[in-house]
Each structure stands twice: as structure tokens, then as C-alpha cells.
Amino acid sequence: MKSYKIALIPGDGIGVAVIDATWEVLDRAARGAGFRLEGTPLPWSCDFYEKTGAMMPADGIETLRGFDAILLGAVGWPARVPDSVSLHGLLLPIRKAFVQYANIRPHRLLPGVQGPLRASAFDILCIRENTEGEYAGAGGRVHNGTADEVAVETSIFTRKGVERILRFGFEQARKRRGKLASVTKSNAQKYSMVFWDEITARLAAEYPDVEVTNYHIDAMAARMVMAPESLDVVVASNLFGDILTDLGAAIQGGLGFAASANINPERSAPSMFEPVHGSAPDITHLGIANPIAAIWSGAMMLEHLGETAAAEAVMTAVEAATARSIGTEPGKHKTTDITAAVLSALG
Ligand code: IPM
Ligand code: MN
Are 133 and 164 spatial neighbours (Cβ–Cβ below 8 Å)? Predict the structure, then answer.
């Protein structure tokens, strides 16, 4: 029987409950489709940091390299460990080390979910650059603590990095409705963003079947609210994509529904799947975290592994649950009830 080795990093807060839920659903789907998922839980988290002084062991990246995929819950508990330490100790280094340069985030309304907009028929695929740009980590501080203190943080845009994320976007657009929106701020940022626009224009010539539109990030923010149905594939830099995908989460009914896949398209290292939401320490002990974003991310993992039928079965089951208004409103159902509804729809 075909078997996949999955690293499970529940992480912090509600990450634990949503990964438990997701694992139950994925395991059921795998059995149904005739393959095995072999999960290895890794306790890397803020708890782990308090015990060991690091978010993951020194050889954590090497350990992960041996898996077919990584399923991650959420990282961060700012009251215990500063976010700048926890995220730079676990989530962000994995994205970079494994060249997971395409962060894919789908935004559409599941049946039964009432979004805040009048529009309901949108289907946006945000593709966020995930290894460089504003998150490159290039910078420093001098004259610390004095009146002359200076902090510098420089965005890094490389030809290789920009070209590969845009190319990935063009390929996705080709498989979907053939429209690509490239997001920059080239009216104000005249080096990196003009560079991005130039690469977009050059690639557009290779994809005559894809309709390309350039948007500035501010206009894109407005468009996602006013005319989301006009968008198909949206490609943006790391920080712009981060911001736009919280907006995407909002228009799809909230962070409880926003899934993501950190993909290494060349498959030279494992890809990682995680809900867009964070660890939500404030609701961690209430048992009401919505597992749907994590389960949807799990379906994206099955898709990436080539288990398309199982991935579709999971999404059909999620949609059957939400169509019955299970898990569609924050706090209305327990995590376990939502999971049970998805499991029963899976059969
Ligand atoms: C996300 C998150 C992370 C990011 C944080 C937790 C560092 O907001 O995945 O969108 O900014 O990438
Ligand atoms: Mn974010």
C-alpha cells in the first residue's frame, strides 16, 4: 500500500486542536482511497522553547527533510515568547530552507458561509512569494537604545525569486480562468517594484493565453472588497501577499476558513501546509477553534501528494458540513462537532 511520511507540527495554542482534527479527517480519507498516512508528531513550539531555549532542535531542518510533507498548526504565544523569536525560530526558516517559494492561498466562500460582502461568487487564488522580498531578514540596528538609534530592514528582490513566483502564477492562471493580477507598488517604489513589473511584462509575452493586469497594492485591497469576482490568480510579494490574504480570509467569512500551502514546486524538499490563522491563545481552552482552515490545508497537502481523489473527497465533506451550517459561524460549534460532521460526510 502506498504510504506517505508526514511531519506533524501542531505548534501552539489552537494549532494543537486543529491539527488533531485535520489528522482524523486525512487519515479517514486516506483509508477510503487506499493509501496510508504515517504521521510523526514533533512537539516544536513555544513550550519546547521554554524547555530547551530553541523553537526546534538544531538539526530540525535536517529531520524535516526526510518527510513527504509537513502539516503545521500555528506558531506563537507572544505572552511567553516574543513573536519575532518564535516565528524566526520555526515557521519562517522552514519556508526558506525548503525553498517553499509559492505560498498558495485560496479565497472563496464555502456553501453556507455568509461573508461580509454582497458578492458571493468569487474564487481567488492568491500566490504569495514566500522566501525573500520584505521577509528577507536583511537589516540591523545600530546605536541601540540611544537617541541616535537606527533600524534598517531592506527588501530583497532577486531576478530568480521574482521570475519563479510569477511563472508559477502564470501556470496556475493557465489551469484556471486565464487571468493573472500582478500586485506591486511601482508608482512609489521605483527599484524593486519596477523590476517586478518588468519581469511580469517579459513573462506575459511567453503566456499570450493569460490576460495580465498590473495593480498597485492599495487598489488591489479596494478591488478585493468591491469586485472580488473580477479576480482569478493574484500574485504578490511576501508582505503584500501576507496582507492581502488576511483580507482574502475576511471576505471568505473569516480566518477560520483560510487555508494555505507553502509549496516547493520543484519538489527538491518537502512542502508545508498550514491554516492562515494564528495560535489564538485567547480561545485555546474553549474548544471552539474552527478546524476547517486546517482541514482545507490538509486537502491541499493530499492534492500536492498526487492523491487528488482523496483531496476532493475531503473538500466535498467539508462543504457538506458547512452547507448544513456546521462550522459556519465563529463559536457556534465546538471543534469536535465540526470535525465529527466532516467525518460523517466522508463516510
Ligand atoms: C502568515 C502569518 C506569518 C507571516 C507570521 C505568523 C510570521 O501571518 O502565514 O500569514 O507573516 O507569514
Ligand atoms: Mn499573515
Answer: no
User: How many Cα atoms within 13 Å fall on the side-chain side of residue 255?
Assistant: 15
How close is the Cα of 242 to the center of ligand 2, in Å? 5
Q: What is the pLDDT of residue 119?
A: 81
pLDDT digit string (tens) for 104-122?
A: 999 999 999 999 999 889 9
Which of the 8 DSSP states describes residue 77?
B
Mutation test residue for ligand 1: of 14, 46, 86, 87, the one with most atoms within 8 Å of CB? 87
Cβ–Cβ < 8 Å for 124, 231: yes
Atom of ligand 1 at shortest distance to CA of 91? Answer: 7
Please name the residue whose Cα sits nearest to atom 5 of ligand 1. 87
What is residue 88's three-state secondary structure?
Answer: helix
If you measure from the C-alpha of residue 169 to the centroid of ligand 2, how many angstroms do you get, rounded to a whole number?
19
Nearest alpha-carbon partner for 11 in 74, 60, 58, 82: 74
Query: Average pLDDT by consecutive 10-residue portion of the chain (347 residues)?
Result: 97 98 98 98 98 98 98 98 97 98 98 93 98 97 98 98 98 98 98 98 98 98 98 98 98 98 98 98 97 98 98 98 96 97 96
Q: Report the interhelical angle of 335-346 vs 308-323 (nearest 10°).
A: 120
Q: Quote the distance between the C-alpha of residue 219 and its chain's center.
A: 23
Whole-angstrom Cα distance, residue 20 to residue 284? Answer: 13
Q: Determine the Cα angle at 16 with ends 11 and 22, to 5°.
A: 115
CA distances (Å), origin 232, targets 8, 179, 299: 31, 6, 20
Do 17 and 77 form a contact (C-beta atoms < 8 A)? Answer: no
The dihedral region occupied by 212, where left means phi > 0, alpha psi between -120 and 50, and beta the remainder, is: beta
The closest alpha carbon to 201, from 185, 182, 186, belongs to 182
Residue nearest to atom 1 of ligand 1 (CA): 276
